[in-house]
Amino acid sequence: MSVKTSISGFPELLPHERALENAVLSEVRSCFELFGFVDIETRAVEPVSALLSKGETSKEVYLLTRLQDPAVDMDSPKQLGLHFDLTVPFARYVFENAGYLQFPFRRTSIGKVWRGERPQNGRFREFVQADVDIVNRSENGEELPIFHDVDIVKTVDYTLRRLERFNIPGATIQINNRKLLDGAYTVFGIKDKIETMRTLDKMDKIGQTSVLNALLDSGEDELSAKKCLEFAKIVATTPEELLNNSLIKEVQVEDVAKGGLEELIHLLSAANAFHKMSADESDARVLANLRITRGLDYYTGSVFETFLDGFENFGSIASGGRYDNLVGCSIKGASSESPKFPGVGMSIGITRLMSIILDVNSAPKKTVPTLVLVAVNSEQVRTDSDFVVDYLRHKNISAISSPRAWKFGKQIEYAEKLGIEFVWFIDEHGNYSVKNITTKVQEEVDDSTFKDEVKLKKIFGKCVDDATLQVI
Amino acid sequence: MSVKTSISGFPELLPHERALENAVLSEVRSCFELFGFVDIETRAVEPVSALLSKGETSKEVYLLTRLQDPAVDMDSPKQLGLHFDLTVPFARYVFENAGYLQFPFRRTSIGKVWRGERPQNGRFREFVQADVDIVNRSENGEELPIFHDVDIVKTVDYTLRRLERFNIPGATIQINNRKLLDGAYTVFGIKDKIETMRTLDKMDKIGQTSVLNALLDSGEDELSAKKCLEFAKIVATTPEELLNNSLIKEVQVEDVAKGGLEELIHLLSAANAFHKMSADESDARVLANLRITRGLDYYTGSVFETFLDGFENFGSIASGGRYDNLVGCSIKGASSESPKFPGVGMSIGITRLMSIILDVNSAPKKTVPTLVLVAVNSEQVRTDSDFVVDYLRHKNISAISSPRAWKFGKQIEYAEKLGIEFVWFIDEHGNYSVKNITTKVQEEVDDSTFKDEVKLKKIFGKCVDDATLQVI
Q1: How high is the ipTM of this complex?
Q2: The whole model's pTM is what?
Q3: Residues of chain B contacting A12 with CB distance shorter than 8 Å
Q4: Inter-chain residue contact A126 with B10, CB threshold 8 Å
């Protein structure tokens, strides 16, 4: 299986692939409900001013114009663009609806986002993200304590574990903390911290030497740049490993770094304890990796990326972080006196994940939700078959009539092709019988069985309780 | 309740409203599965050339440009626009993927569409449609028989009936047939049939006199125009009413009109028979109304509109029709030698329906999927509460810990506000108890109950089997 695309970067799935995607989405939704997240949906568009106010995203935005008036006006507050993630619209939604929400507000949103960039392996122009975020309204100095970051990582860890039933490998969530980086860069004497983080974010793509050269080119001292690179190599699965590292010891004298380190350590140990509680394995699945910076400017504390074992080159399949000031800057009507809405969240890249899931699963036999095909003896008596179809549907049994009055062998073949489990026959005397396509057993349906819902449903066994597609 | 919108025409829902919308969508999806429709999702964009090739839609299209290169090029095959319905993309999808599909292909798609027009009452720029369509591949002269039109009307009739649990009134599906109109217009001596249909489509908006004047202005004879108007007033719930009408008698001498009339009569009686089979009422719910024309050019036979009793002014909440040649004209790579894909379908306007459903239902008490709030005694012992939360989640019981170690009264109040049914307490000796917020009953949870999943779930009664939101 592979994702088809007739416009580059805009993937579309075949019916059996979409059935698999729906099963994945349904699993993700039920995990998010288990962790107490409320579903909301934001519109597809935002004012461009809001989309461009944060981070290195300008190249990614699709603008909207109308056929009757196709001029783009970047200075107009009415100029709209398609959202490139679900976090920026969520922050705006929270600001606009704060009076109607209970804080801390735990929200999930699953939907499409668009990026106008050149598509490459694992990257798309239109794709689906599944987000969880927790946002607080910061009043009287109330913040959003670090245990919310832990809960976000737990949610994604648990969800990815449940998705392993779709034959994907285990996932490692790699975490870092922007405050730790910020403080460390102070200690190292870095001049442009934001630029340095952006450059380091490209390490996997361009390699260590190019990163070093880029840092030197942008005016950093060689010693500072080299320390940044060394720092970015630190990886740890336990607090002890972090605390014993000499560079960590060097930077934690700085207050901001110390605060960030404490958050990172708390998150690392709490999330790994949760994972071990449930995973029947002793491996740590949450890893401190000080190379993780995230490209977007709006993160202020924890940052997360997630890699599937063996698919590391494919890129992160779940990313996010802590954003303490996302609302304040970008939203119409917000001012320095507006309440702050600190938040933390992660986003699972469903489309990217699906391209792996489609590769490692064979096509399901069943491609329709239908349980029963009612055979048609001739077009003249199609209404007899329609009566049975309508009757079954009213008993909550998914049914269709055969599209043509083919020979019975061909009607059975048609059911088999679609993966429909049962074929219903009407003989010349109007008697009913049902054939199980898998077992080939055909049994009569007498009048008392037909009229008794419980008896009727017994014919279809377990299938009838689960009308939705079983894809795995 | 009312739909909020901070950009005109782009509605967004509050969490409890979205919960209601999700319940509606879930009901719609399970009805569509019952009728054997397969879910697919098409991308949000199409080449503008495909979007503009049919019907009076040019004013409605949003074009896409990229920030780095914002010029619109209407002559380029790469110029993209957002789809304004789900039918045009579906036709293109069928053409591209025909080799992988089983025909007749019964597909559902539920998704957003966009129209750049001025929003008015009941109209939006971004809205959700829920579509069902049946498409055949026409080879060796095989067409798509009229019983598929019947099945589409049955599907929507049944679905709208199931949606009555959301306190909406009954719906009347009004049907007509373009072939009947076409043949009648031949008999009446109409010169521009397409223009006449478009003008008649505006009857409800601009009134009879304006329609007559518009027909005269566009060059039709007075006698012809008046006959069209008379014809458009014909309404019938039975075949007999139609056949006894003198104008119908006049036009059925014409072959095309006769063919259309036969289809209309078959559809009318079959769909009403289905409705009466299930609806515990004798009222006809499918009505032949010869005023219905549908604005879009691509319909070639049956056309449908649907009105909720008492909300007729609100506009149609489910529309569609038969399209025998939709694929042929608009799609890249299609030629006169390509196979034809005749189809029939309807689209339920979910967003429009939601604005009614939100008006007639009060806000549900429960706004989160969470079943249990685990109280926190102090921030120092939060991990004790987190342990319980994590344990419950692993038993598939939706839980969160209290966001703050408030006094217990305030923690209970917080659960009540969110509609969380149970609060879990840990006393100073580490003993557990659970309080039911509704009954105020608090019961101890001893160690054996805690460790026995069956016993544990009994505490939460029926709630635990249905973790998803109950909104009605």
Answers
A1: 0.93
A2: 0.94
A3: 40-43, 93
A4: no
